[in-house]
Each structure stands twice: as structure tokens, then as C-alpha cells.
Amino acid sequence: MADTKTNPEAVSAKLSLGDQTIELPVMRPTVGPDVLDIRKLYAQGDVFTYDPGFTSTAACESAITYIDGDKGELLYRGYPIEQLADKSTHLETCFLLLYGELPTAAQLADFTERVTKHTMVHEQMHYFFRGFRRDSHPMATMVGVVGAMSAFYHDSTDIADPWQREVAAIRLIAKLPTIAAMAYKYSIGQPFVYPKNSLDYASNFLNMCFAVPAEDYQVNPILAKAMDRIMMLHADHEQNASTSTVRLAGSSGANPFACIAAGIACLWGPAHGGANQACLEMLREIGTVDRIPEYVAKAKDKNSGFRLMGFGHRVYKNFDPRAKVMKESADEVLNLLGVGNNPLLQVAKELERIALEDEYFISKKLYPNVDFYSGIILEAMGFPTSMFTPIFALSRTVGWIAQWKEMIADPTQKIGRPRQLYTGPAARDYVDLRHR
Ligand code: CMC
């Protein structure tokens, strides 16, 4: 990204504040809208800008992921998500996100080997799990266990050491599927299944979730491919709430495991990653196609507090490109499992049709997002709804850690410290208890 200093064509914007004119340099991205550099605004004009929810504020410079919300385009390091979903794998995409380029065959083999050799967790972590209530939500367990990785892997918490940063990244990508599967097994009272390094990344995760020591379990390759796609489609999404949380936590110098635990906590909310669980629960509650109009009417009624889960997005004002790929996968998986006429899928398809023709949804540009179809696939695979968000978390881990590494390596990085529009009382004198 070039700023006014390096780009001869760069322009600046002028801001009039009373009788003062402040010049704001304009930064030019590779693609996307220009960005006003307001860093010196407070020093020059004694004013702040106000933008709750960051709807118009770029909080960092990044070269990892780009979204064009109007076109419905998502690029990882410049590569369209549809091409990656068609031709790549999750681990290759992890390499791309982390290092900026698609790997050569040798680089991919080396990376796969490094990740695969880190899939086991410290044996003592098994006891740590036992401290949780059996009925804990797997996301609650994951926030705790991932945070605890900083206690188990001290030797990769020095953020000033590039090698330790790299080891932490590999450990997180390798161990998150193991931790998510353990959280699941613990919640259903089954023994933990150790990772199997002869399996690929997605198959290993399915095996750790669905195998039991007493029986042989064969991973279905079509389901493994669908799982790999789900992982890849969720791998990164530029400066969303959880990624921004990871960056903000990391900006103070916190260790990577603590930062990723913070990201997982943020992801859990129903407006973000928790929407996949909420969406499937909503489809179940609707139950039959004839009840859809009632729910659409409720979603349009501001006083109901109800939203159609799996619809709408802060950035996409067009179809979420991930949802398109996910819909194809849903058809493939349900047909394979012989449940192509699954009632939930029928409700989902009809809901999508009605919402896309409805004036309310059209005018507000509310399209189905990635969470609309992912839950249907995961349920068909045999996952309970409580595992949907943990699967999002393990898939997004590479994006979080790539963004965290990018931030730490950026010499201009500062602690994140937003300002505020204060509306509380001005200074006043303490009143003694007797006089209140
Ligand atoms: N159903 C009904 N109305 C909606 C919906 C919805 N799902 N989403 C937005 N609206 C309306 C909203 O009421 C508002 O109307 P008005 O302008 O009249 O006040 C307008 O659309 C804009 O909504 P907003 O809340 O200002 O938009 P936002 O950018 O702050 O919120 C969102 C984005 C994703 C939080 C929101 O669309 C939503 O709550 N969707 C449902 C939850 C969901 O599916 N989240 C998953 C997001 S994709 C996965 C991920 O990346 O985490």
C-alpha cells in the first residue's frame, strides 16, 4: 500500500474546521476505496472522529485478504475464493495466507509435515479438560483451553522472536482441530481420540470427532472434502470482529495463544460465528415451508427483535461468495448421504427464495451469508449444533494468526487505543454520604 509520500499521483483531502483548514493525506490501496490518513488530526485540529462499529474506519494496513462487498468478491492474497475452493486445499490455503504465495510442491510437503507433526497436545491438557463441566458448550471449553496453551507452550510465547512466532502459528493451526474434537468428545462423555498423522487435515479432524477406540472408523472422502472446503471458506475474512479482537489483544504485546483465545471469545457471538448455530436452530424452529412467511414478517418487524440468521453482512451488499460454494457443497453432501430431501434444506431453499424476492431484503441488500448453508452440511455430517462455531474457530485460526503475525512484523504498529465521545458528567465535587 502506497501513501502520499511514495505515490506521486496521491492527493489529499481538505477538512474545514471553523477558520482552520487541515490537509489529510489520501492513502491508495491496491484495490478498493482510498483511505484518509487522519493520524495527525487530533494533534492538528484537537478533534476526534466518531465511528462506532468501524463502519468507515480502516484500523490497519493489510496485504492478506480483500473483500469487494458490492461485487460479492473475496480474495485471499489476490486469489478468488471460488478458484481456491475448486482447486486448492485448506492446508495449501493456510500456506498462502501465512506466507503470501502459493507453495511449490516441496514447500507444501514441508509445511504439511510441520503441521502434521504438531497435532498432538501436551498430555497434561487431557487433565485440564476434566476441570470443565461435562455439559459445557465446546466454545466455552475452547476459549479456556486455547488460552491455557500459553501455560503449556512457554517456549513459543516470546513475540519478539520471529522463530517463536512461527512455531506458535504452526502449533495453533495444528492443535486447534485436536482441541475442538476433544471439547466435543468431552461433552458427549466419549474418550479422546488421538490425532492420526497418516490422515489429511480434514480427515484427521473427522476421525478425532467420530472414531471410538472400540471400532474401526473409515472417513468418507467426500465428507472429508466438504469439511476441507468449509475450513478453507472460513480461513480468513479481513478485519472482522474476531480478527480485530486478535489484533487489538496482540497490540499490547500479549502472547499469540492469549490473542487467539480472545478471538474465539469474540467469534462466539450470534452476530458473528455463533450465527451458524443460531441459523440451524432457526431453520428447525421454522420447521416447515408454510411457516416461512410468519418468520419473514417477524424479521421485518423492528419491534420483534428477531433477525433472519444467516442473512446480511456488514461488508457484503451482494451474495456472499462463500455461501454460493457452500450451497453446492450442501447439495453434494446431502445427496451422498441420501438425505437430499432433508426438510431443513427445503426450508432453507424456500426461505432464501422468498427473502431474495422480498422488497425489505432487496432494499437493505440482505443476502444469505456463509452461515446459511454451513450448518446444514455440518448437521448432515453428524455434528451437533454446539460444534458449528468451534469448527468456524478452528478454520479461522490461520487467518487470525496470519493477521497477528503481519501486525507484529509491522514497524508502524502501535497499541490499539480508540478515543471516545464522552457524554458523562463533567468534573464535579464529591458529596459526603450524609448530604446525598
Ligand atoms: N434480518 C432482518 N433484518 C436485518 C438483518 C437480518 N438478518 N440484518 C440486517 N438487517 C436490517 C437491520 O435491521 C437494519 O435495518 P434498518 O436500516 O432499518 O435499521 C439494516 O438491515 C442494517 O443492519 P445493521 O445491523 O445496521 O447491519 P450491520 O452491518 O451492523 O450488521 C450483521 C451485519 C451480520 C451483524 C447483521 O446483518 C445480522 O445481524 N445478521 C444476522 C446474523 C448473521 O447471520 N451473522 C453472520 C455474519 S457472516 C459470518 C461471519 O463473518 O461472522
TrEMBL record:
It comes from the Bacteria. NCBIfam families: cit_synth_I (TIGR01798), PRK05614.1 (NF004126). It comes from Neogemmobacter tilapiae. Pfam families: Citrate_synt. This is Citrate synthase. Gene3D superfamilies: 2.20.28.60, Citrate Synthase, domain 1 (1.10.580.10), Cytochrome P450-Terp, domain 2 (1.10.230.10). GO terms for biological process: tricarboxylic acid cycle. It catalyses: oxaloacetate + acetyl-CoA + H2O = citrate + CoA + H(+). The active site is at H313, D371. The lineage of its organism: Bacteria, Pseudomonadati, Pseudomonadota, Alphaproteobacteria, Rhodobacterales. Belongs to the citrate synthase family. The gene is gltA. InterPro entries: Citrate_synth-like_lrg_a-sub (IPR016142), Citrate_synth-like_sm_a-sub (IPR016143), Citrate_synthase (IPR002020), Citrate_synthase_AS (IPR019810), Citrate_synthase_bac-typ (IPR024176), Citrate_synthase_sf (IPR036969), Citrate_synthase_typ-I (IPR010953). Keywords: Transferase, Tricarboxylic acid cycle. GO terms for molecular function: citrate synthase activity. The keyword Transferase applies. Pathway: Carbohydrate metabolism; tricarboxylic acid cycle; isocitrate from oxaloacetate: step 1/2. One of its GO terms (cellular component) is cytoplasm. The keyword tRNA processing does not apply.
